[in-house]
Amino acid sequence: ILYSFPDAGSLVSSLASFILKAQKEAVEKKGRFTVALSGGSLPKMLSGLIGHPSVKWDKWHVFYADERVVPLDDPDSNHLLCTDTLFSKVAIPPEQIHAIDTSLLDDLEELADTYEKELIREFAQKDAARFPVFDLILLGMGPDGHTASLFPGHALLAEDDRWIAWLDDSPKPPPKRITFTYPVINHALRVAFVASGAGKVEMLRTVLDEPEKGLPSSRVKPVSPGQLYWFVDDAASAAVQYS
Ligand code: 6PG
Question: In what order do the strands lie in the sheet with 66-68?
Fold first, then answer.
C-alpha cells in the first residue's frame, strides 16, 4: 500500500494516525505495542505523536531495526537521535526502550547476540515463535536502496536464520552496525517505509517498479498476515508507475 502526501505536514499527521491504529489493535489484543525504529529522518517524522492524547506510551516496547555500534552519546547513535527527537519528549518507561549494550562495543558478535537475546526475552517466551512478530517496524530507505543496515550486494541479504546480524563493513559510515535480518522484518504485522524528498524519486521508482533488481528495500515482503506500507511525499513518488 502506497500513501503519498503533498507535503511533510500531511505525511506526519497521517503516519501518526496509522501508528495509533496499530497501537490500539496491539494493546487491545496483547496489552502492549512492540515497535522497531530506524535512524535517518524517521524519528523526526514521528513528531505527530508527541502530545497526542491517544498515545499510550507506557505500552510501547521499542527496539532498533538497526543501530550503529558506537557509544550511546555518540552523534552517530540512532538511540541518541531517537532520544533527542522523541523519547525525551514522551513517557516511555526507560526499561521498555532497548538500546545496545555498550560494554560490548569491541565484540560485535557478542553485542549482536546480546541484542538478539533481548528480542528473544521480549517475544519468544510469549509466542514461542521462530521469529519475533513486531506490531510495527518503521524503516527508511537510503539513496542506494538500503534499508535498516541491509546494503546492496551484502552477504547479510541472504541471512535467514539469525534475528540480529552484525557487520563491520557498512559502505556508509560508521562501518560497525547491527541490523534486523529479513526474517525478522518480514514477520512483522506491519512494516512501514517512510521516505520523502525529490532525492528519493529514482530509487523509489526502482524499488517499487523493478523488484526483480533485488535492491534491499524491494526484499521487504511481509509474510501473511503482515502488510507493507509506504508513506512518501509526492516529490518522492513522482516517477512511480505501477504500485
Ligand atoms: C544509516 C542511516 C540510513 C538512513 C537512510 C534514509 O543507517 O546510515 O540511518 O539508513 O536511514 O539513508 O535516510 P533518510 O530517512 O534521512 O532519507
Answer: 66-68, 177-180, 164-167
| 172, 177, 230: residue to mutate for ligand 1 pocket, most atoms within 8 A of CB | 172
Contact 152 CB / ligand 1 (< 6 Å): no
Could you tell me if the CB of 38 is within 6 A of ligand 1? Answer: yes
Residues 99-126: pLDDT tens digits? Answer: 999 999 999 999 999 999 999 999 976 5
Instruction: Name which residue sits closest to atom 6 of ligand 1, judged by CA.
Output: 142
State yes or no: pLDDT of 229 exceeds 90. Answer: yes
- Cell digits of residue 9: 505536514
Q: Whose CA is nearest to atom 2 of ligand 1?
A: 40
**Percent residues over pLDDT 70 in the chain:** 97
pTM for this entry: 0.97
Domains of the chain, residue spans: 2-196+208-237
Task: Write the ipTM.
Answer: 0.94
CATH architecture of 2-196+208-237: 3-Layer(aba) Sandwich (3.40)
Cβ–Cβ under 8 Å, residues 155 and 178 = no
